[in-house]
């Protein structure tokens, strides 16, 4: 799973980043999580996540659990855009490269834009 988040203003960057650290701590011990990574581009107000999960049930259980659930709710007003993409790979295909994740996110963003038109 990969995601791209853009916050509305530069003032929102520290809050998003600090809250993402709590989610990072949670994912490190989440059942079914193989690994996760974050790229922050604070000057651009953009954050990327990349994570590998045993299955979607494990990912969704993580997303519904605290603190992640509360983080999502509290940050919703600060978000400008969000893009999520999901795909399956065999564990021998891990780790996923950031180049692959960014390509998939760009494809998903184009698909989402067509759907919104």
The H-and-E topology, N to C, reads as EHEEHHEH
Query: How does the helix and strand content classify structurally?
Result: alpha+beta
Shape: globular
> What proportion of the residues is helical, as a percent range?
40-55%
Distance between the termini: 25 Å
Number of strands: 4
Strand order of the largest sheet: 2-3-1-4
Instruction: Pick out the low-confidence regions.
Output: none
Largest sheet: 4 strands, antiparallel
Give the radius of gyration: 14 Å
Q: Tell me the strand percentage band.
A: 25-35%
Q: Total helix count?
A: 4
Can you tag this structure with a few keywords?
alpha+beta; 4 strands; 4-stranded antiparallel β-sheet; 117 residues
Characterise the protein shown here:
The protein has 117 residues and is α+β, with helices and mostly antiparallel strands. It has four helices and four strands, in the order βαββααβα. It has helices at 13-28, 56-64, 68-75, 98-116; strands at 2-7, 33-41, 46-53, 79-85. It has a four-stranded antiparallel sheet with strand order 2-3-1-4, with helices on both faces. The radius of gyration is 14 Å and the shape is globular.
Quick summary of this structure?
With 117 residues, the protein is α+β, with helices and mostly antiparallel strands. 44% of the residues lie in helices and 26% in strands.
Fold blueprint:
Elements: E1 2-7, H1 13-28, E2 33-41, E3 46-53, H2 56-64, H3 68-75, E4 79-85, H4 98-116
Antiparallel strand pairs: 1-3, 1-4, 2-3
């Amino acid at each position: 799973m990969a995601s791209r988040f853009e916050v509305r203003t530069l003032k929102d960057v520290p809050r998003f980043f600090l809250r993402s650290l709590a989610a990072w701590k949670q994912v490190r011990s989440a059942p079914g999580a193989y690994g996760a990574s974050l790229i922050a581009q604070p000057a651009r107000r953009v954050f990327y996540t990349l994570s590998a999960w045993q299955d979607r049930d494990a990912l969704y259980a993580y997303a519904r659990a605290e603190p992640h659930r509360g983080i999502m709710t509290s940050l919703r007003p600060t978000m400008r855009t969000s893009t999520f993409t999901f795909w399956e790979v065999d564990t021998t295909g891990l780790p996923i490269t950031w180049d692959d994740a960014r390509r998939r996110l760009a494809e998903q963003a184009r698909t989402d834009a067509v759907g919104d038109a």
